[in-house]
Structure formats: structure tokens, C-alpha cells
Amino acid sequence: MRLILLGAPGAGKGTQATFIKEKFNIPQISTGDMLRAAVKAGTPLGLAAKKVMDAGNLVSDDIIIGLVKDRLKEPDCANGYLFDGFPRTTPQADAMKDAGVAIDYVLEIDVPDEAIIERMSGRRTHPASGRTYHVKFNPPKVEGKDDVTGEELIQREDDKEETVKNRLAVYHNQTKVLVDYYGDWAKSGQPGAPKYRKISGVGPVEQIRDSAFTALEN
Ligand code: AP5
Ligand code: ZN
Predict the structure, then answer these.
(1) Domain contains 128
(2) Does residue 100 have a pLDDT over 90?
(3) Between the CA atoms of 13, 130, 35 and 68, what dihedral angle is there, to the nearest 10 degrees?
(4) Which of 22, 55, 179, 196 has the fewest C-beta atoms under 10 angstroms from its C-beta?
(5) Computed from CA positions of residues 73, 78, 84, 88, in that sequence, does the dihedral angle turn out positive or negative?
(6) What phi and psi, each to the nearest 5 degrees, are found at residue 53?
């Protein structure tokens, strides 16, 4: 299984990725998680990316494309992969097409902007694993602690309301074009075209998981 999860910031890509990667036994390639790891490690990439991310803008295409191409060379990608938060621009999508990176499904998770701000303000994450919770909608078993490791949960720097508003604007200006990009490709019936599936991301997490699994079955 090789798939792209497409959706606005806070649509639930990371949340659903946890279920999908387990079901299909594939690695989750989250460019956001990779960048946050680089920031934490203080690498040159991390130092360059931090300002851009904290403002809610996009890191340059060249950097992101390089990161993903390197990641795809690792042996765990042989069985498939799940892209979370990538591609995010037309040049990123073109780069994957040009490199012949196969995609079976593009799964769009649709959530209206109004619901996003509340989701972001209550989000808590476990940086080491990328696991995501919400204080109200998807709370951890023990408040403030990761379910698996018991380690401390944190709030992301870019989850402030102002930054979230900018991230939504960036999504509409630069990423939403990929809905038509992949939708049209899917409709073209060309060899190697992915299947395009759209599900609602509003409702209980488990209900959305079930719609995602159904969408990926046919
Ligand atoms: P990235 O980490 O990719 O962030 P994003 O796309 O903005 O998406 P999020 O992680 O915020 O949301 P999500 O859809 O994963 O939602 P989640 O499951 O966590 O990118 C961060 C930054 O890195 C970018 O701004 C950019 O600077 C840079 N970057 C990354 N990739 C890049 C690229 N390809 N090119 C250039 N720059 C790049 O859920 C959100 C919250 O809602 C959680 O609290 C969750 O518990 C809750 N929730 C989930 N599902 C539900 C539900 N059904 N009901 C209620 N609450 C729910
Ligand atoms: Zn995410």
C-alpha cells in the first residue's frame, strides 16, 4: 500500500496515519515530524526550518523533496509507505511523479476550517513517536502523558491561534490545488494513476478510521 493523506492542518492526518500504518504495516512519512525532529536535534536543517514552521509557512520545496527522496531509499519503504503532510505544493507532487514514486491511493480527509482552531488549541503530542491526542476529543489515558511510553506530552509551537490561521491560509493558497491535481489524474485512467478517495473527517476518531479503511478497500 502506497498512499498520500491529504487534508488541512488539523484534519486528523496524523491521527488516522497511526491506524493506517498499523493495518498495512507501512512506515509513516510525515515531513512535519521529520522537520520537528531536526529542529529538536539542532541540525542545520532544523535551525533553518524553525522560523518558517513557527510562522506557519512552508519550508522550501528543494529541502522537502530531498528529505523525502532520501527517506524513500530506506529499506522499510519497500513494502509501501504513507505520506502525511506531503506533497504540499505542485512542485512537490511533480517531483514524485517525475521520480516515478508509485501512489495507489490519495485519501482526502475533509474538515471545515471552523472546526480546526478548536482541534489545534487542544492538541497534545508525544514528540518522539508523533502520537497525537486532544484534551477533549481524544484524551490520553493519563492526563499529560503518552499512552505507550508514559512520557510527557507537549503543545506544538505552531498551534497558537494566529499561526493556525496562517497555516489554514497557506493550505488554501498552496496545497488545496492538489485536490484537483490528484483528482484529475485519478479520473484520467492513465497507467499508474492513483485512486482518489474523499472522506469526512468530522465525527469520532474511530468512525473516521472505519471510513478510511473502507475507502482503501475498493
Ligand atoms: P505538519 O506537521 O504536516 O502539520 P499540518 O499539515 O499543519 O497538520 P497537523 O499535524 O497540524 O494536523 P493533522 O492533520 O496531522 O491533525 P492531527 O491528527 O494532529 O507541518 C507542520 C509544519 O512543517 C508546516 O507548517 C510547514 O512549516 C512544515 N512542513 C511540513 N511538511 C511540509 C512540506 N511537505 N512542505 C513544506 N513545509 C512542510 O489532529 C489535530 C488535533 O485534532 C489533535 O489534537 C487530534 O487529537 C484532534 N483530532 C483528530 N481527529 C479528530 C476528530 N475526528 N474529532 C475531533 N478531534 C480530532
Ligand atoms: Zn500531523
Answers:
(1) no
(2) yes
(3) -60
(4) 22
(5) positive
(6) -70, -45
